[in-house]
Amino acid sequence: MPFNMRPTKNPMPSQEPNVRNKNFKEVALGYTEEMAIDEAKRCLNCKNKPCVAHCPVNIDIPGFIAKVAEGKFEEAYEIISESSSLPAVCGRVCPQETQCEMKCTRGLRPGSEPVAIGRLERFVADYHNANFKGEVKKVPSNGHKVAVIGSGPSGLTCAGDLAKKGYDVTIFEALHLAGGVLVYGIPEFRLPKAIVQKEVDGLKALGVKVETNMVIGKVISIDELQQEYGFEAIFIGSGAGLPRFMGIPGENLKGVYSANEFLTRTNLMKAYKEGSDTPIEHAKRVAVVGGGNVAMDAARCAKRLGAEEVYIVYRRSEEELPARKEEVEHAKEEGIIFKLLNNPIEIIEDPETHLVKGMKCIRMELGEPDASGRRRPIPVEGSEFVLDVDCVIISIGTSPNPLIKSTTKGLDTNSHGCIIAEETTGKTSREGVYAGGDAVTGAATVILAMGAGKHAAKAIDEYISSK
Amino acid sequence: MYKIVKKEILNPTVTLMQIEAPFVAKKAKAGQFIILIVDEGGERIPLTVAGTDEEKGTVEIIFQVVGATTLKLNQKEVGDELYAFVGPLGEPSKVEGKKNVVVIGGGAGCAIALPMSRGFKKAGAHVTSVVGFRNKDLVILEKEFKEVSDEYVPMSDDGTYGTKGLVTNALEKLINEGNVYDEVFAVGPLIMMKFVVLTCKKYNVPCTVSMNPLMIDGTGMCGCCRLTVGGKTKFACVDGPDFNGYEVDFDEAMSRNTMYREFERKAYDDACNLFKKEVK
Description:
The structure holds 2 protein chains of 2 kinds.
Chain A: H1 17-20, H2 33-40, H3 50-53, H4 61-69, H5 73-83, H6 87-93, H7 117-131, E1 145-149, H8 153-164, E2 168-172, H9 181-184, H10 193-205, E3 209-211, H11 222-227, E4 233-236, E5 240-243, E6 256-258, H12 259-268, E7 285-289, H13 293-304, E8 309-314, H14 325-333, E9 337-340, E10 342-349, E11 356-369, E12 375-379, E13 385-387, E14 391-394, E15 398-400, H15 402-405, E16 433-435, H16 438-441, H17 446-465
Parallel strand pairs in A: 1-2, 1-4, 2-3, 4-16, 6-14, 7-8, 7-14, 8-9
Antiparallel strand pairs in A: 5-15, 10-11, 11-12, 11-13
Helix pairs in contact in A: 2-4, 2-7, 4-5, 5-7, 6-7, 8-17, 12-13
Chain B: E1 2-11, E2 14-20, H1 22-27, E3 33-37, E4 45-53, E5 58-64, H2 68-75, E6 81-82, E7 84-89, E8 100-106, H3 110-122, E9 126-133, H4 142-148, E10 151-156, E11 163-164, H5 167-176, E12 183-187, H6 190-203, E13 207-210, E14 226-229, E15 232-235, H7 236-239, E16 242-244, H8 250-257, H9 261-279
Parallel strand pairs in B: 8-9, 8-12, 9-10, 10-11, 12-13
Antiparallel strand pairs in B: 1-2, 1-6, 2-5, 3-4, 3-7, 4-5, 13-16, 14-15
Helix pairs in contact in B: 2-9, 5-6
């Protein structure tokens, strides 16, 4: 079969920026079969497979791409699902440019782009979801009970891997819907909720039980799960917790949100829909403070809710933006204004309404690299100015959820409150208790959480089998 | 789903319900709250646990019809089911180790004050319950308060029930009569709690307040319920809902609570109209 030696990726068909920034439908529309086959033929199936080594769950990438090139999409899906439980999700939200696609042989030469691995993964998963008619193979139960706390990416992955090995898995979710950050955080236009639901339904078909409205640590403790309810092992994937604030004046004014609150109202509670019972402010001029993926999501949601001007206010430069490049590009295309090298110092109140009237910022310049290896931003004296906004969304990170830590004796945490767990196994200081995802690492990515869930599932299987 | 097993109209706008939620019933303590969703797609609202029956597996809630969601909840009858019911959330109130306490409830806040009076009494304290209502028609839980209190001091704005005046008048009178209290616990409208705290400060009596800010997840994720307490940002859902009243920034809390007033009013009117139509 001849390779396709075109140096560039097949572009992703997408909604036009000026159309999509007014609706919540998915931005990227996905490859057609022809595009997928054409793109798949760009893969050289090279010997050293750098893509596999750079995938946190080590998907056999050249293997599935070869099947796509042959038009055998269902076989491609089977190869992906050997390693990944959530391909339709990962194909959409993984930072491929810093993982599988980063070292792709096709992208090494200047002016050439890597194979569009993420887009192909998404295509294969969507093809399967649309066309697969068969029954999910249910593995006979081995009679061992495992509890998974949290139904975000790490929990879903851990539950899926264990169910495939015959474990009797129960997921406990605090919210009324399963999916964790995939449901409350990542917006519909980036990850349609129907896709997450499909993944959750897939796990249920494998025999996984999902108990929503259960806040572990409050309604049942870790000790009770082990001693009274007979769970032989527990995986904690309770995710990131309380939002951080900057500690500047005016942060508790009306019209100041944490990104978590703004996104939860919008995504989980569907406040963007006409007639929703959950309110949200439809501000005209919005400042989002922070430069990560969550900040991009919040900014793009604010735009879609009708804001005329939306600013990303970030204290470092474009190079240091922690968000995925594609998210930054999408945000720019949609008209989000980047106010880089600026730091907020005060949120100004309208004394009559107690609403936000503006945000005072100071310009920054970059000095020497700090502990994180990034150049430290330093305020430029006398450069203060006021940004005219009526809503501020703070998106500068989170600290881990305190509920399990505070109610579980002998579960060690670090100075940030993150659960201490072995990187390769998720093993914690408590026997039979494993942890992974943001609860361990602090705010990170979906795929890293999935990788942690995967490692923990393997370790849990070994732990129970060896007992 | 969570079945309604009892419904009792306490006054024209305040209703008591018992909900089947055995896991919550087993764990909930005085001062903790639950979050419920009436129907799929509805809003999440926090309500304080008014009581539990572990054997029956039920949790008691008392709510005032103030907006669209509580109006919808009030339309539900025994045998109907709620879409979501999660808890117990928040830290339990500290009722141990007190000798002489005043529990102050204002309006529907009495629904939260009652389990506090009960809790203090069980823990061995002498309990004076001061309750305030606008008028006689709005009085709730009189019999229950009398059962769990050593003294019951009813007040009303118009003098149609108990003594005419505010709960702070009653508190001041009790203190001036020479009673020495090691704690005042207040729950009710923010403005009432603010003035109870000011009164306590005047006489140097410790005061705990139960805060009820806007909330979404209630598990320490969204940050909507934040308050300034002692100059620091605190989250009512995981750090509270009880706080040292001396340290709470009530003016900020009052402002934040009005964030969606217009939306709420419109949603309430829409819901009223909807139910009127259905009745026809």
